[in-house]
UniProtKB/TrEMBL annotation:
The entry's keywords: 2Fe-2S, Cell membrane, Disulfide bond, Electron transport, Iron, Iron-sulfur, Membrane, Metal-binding, Oxidoreductase, Respiratory chain, Transmembrane, Transmembrane helix, Transport
Naturally occurring in which organism (per UniProt): Georgenia wutianyii
Protein name: Cytochrome bc1 complex Rieske iron-sulfur subunit
Cofactor: [2Fe-2S] cluster
Coiled-coil blocks: none
Annotated stretches, region: Disordered: 1-22
Length: 348
């Protein structure tokens, strides 16, 4: 006996199938005029996608890169907007097409044994053919053409810059020389032996650095003093940028040929990772390790920036430095090896 509820015998063994909700008639189903209006809306969205893709590709060729930072940002913005709006337009058009034009009649198919019989397979093929027919793509050539055009052009803002970059011939000579090897008037300091070296300066304010201002454990992003803000400024700065710190001289492992490349524990190394060129900048003061944030290549600055972890295969190039007669840090010479990724080694 039960109280406050139904008896156990009143509970059915199987619940009745509630069935499908009533079918909702859409505006496009009421008349061909409404369907045509929806079709024009989808085509308009796809045309916006096509236009955005074309603008992205044209922007890649029309906006010069490498003169000023604004040009780089504008080029990246145009390519990104072209790619994003191109893909977004296709997605919105596809969703609108599916919701407003494609057949939305509810169908129920009961579960069948596996595998299906040949008859069922034939029926599935017929259903696919019916679905293609009911999507009305065959009867709407303008819509089909717009979709094909948008889908074909949308990836171009991504593909064209990629192919354009890969098509450039790798010229290692471009990375054998940096601005450290040049000493324009007003950018150098006089060395005791009478030679002149280019002064090290802080990035981005271009302030020459005195050796006395570099304390143990401090970190500096360094560029050549007096780097002119003109054409190819970004390229020259990217090649020449240096990471500098001061380490207790007793902790430095220095090879005989590099004994005069540092000054009282102050060492300077290229900031361009030798793996794929990312800027290394994460410095661990206690371990003297410099980490690349892209793929975690790790370099030991206390041991001539040799690789201790990660995919990089070559130590960071070291910039030979000393002080001038006024106490400012200067470069003795340019790097003694190419900076950047070690792609050039693959040609050996």
């Amino acid at each position: 006996m039960t109280t406050g509820g139904a008896h156990a015998s009143d509970v059915p063994e199987q619940f009745q199938d509630p069935g499908l909700e009533p079918h909702q008639i859409r505006l496009a189903d009421r008349s061909e005029k409404n369907a045509k209006r929806v079709e024009r809306q989808v085509v308009a969205i796809l045309l916006v996608s096509i236009l955005a893709s074309v603008v992205g590709v044209v922007g890649y060729f029309a906006i010069p890169v490498g003169t000023t930072l604004m040009d780089v940002r504008l080029s990246t913005l145009v390519i990104g907007l072209g790619l994003g709006l191109g893909m977004l337009g296709i997605g919105i058009a596809a969703a609108h097409w599916a919701k407003a034009l494609m057949d939305n009649t509810e169908r129920v198919e009961k579960r069948k044994p596996i595998p299906s019989s040949p008859e069922v397979r034939e029926e599935a093929v017929e259903q696919i053919a019916t679905g293609i027919e009911e999507s009305r793509i065959g009867r709407r050539p303008v819509l089909k053409g717009a979709l094909v055009g948008a889908a074909a052009l949308a990836p171009l803002p991504f593909v064209v810059p990629l192919v354009g970059g890969l098509s450039n011939t790798w010229d290692v000579n471009r990375f054998r020389h940096t601005a450290w090897g040049d000493v324009p008037e007003g950018t150098g300091g006089l060395l005791p032996d009478g030679s002149v070296g280019r002064r090290l300066a802080t990035d981005p304010d271009d302030r020459p650095i005195r050796a006395a201002d570099v304390t143990i454990g401090s970190a500096f992003a360094v560029i050549p003093h007096g780097l002119p803000d003109e054409e190819h400024y970004l390229e020259e700065k990217a090649k020449a940028v240096v990471f500098m710190t001061r380490i207790d001289p007793n902790e430095l492992a220095v090879s005989p040929e590099r004994r005069d490349w540092s000054y009282d524990g102050i060492v300077a190394y290229s900031k361009v990772c030798t793996h794929v060129g990312c800027p290394v900048a994460l410095y661990e003061q206690q371990t003297h390790h410099l980490l690349c944030p892209c793929h975690q290549s790790t370099f030991d600055l206390a041991d001539e920036a040799k690789v201790v972890f990660g995919p990089a295969k070559r130590a960071l190039p070291q910039l030979p430095i000393t002080v001038d007669t006024d106490g400012y840090l200067v470069a003795r010479s340019d790097f003694h090896e190419p900076v950047g990724p070690s792609f050039w080694e693959r040609d050996r």
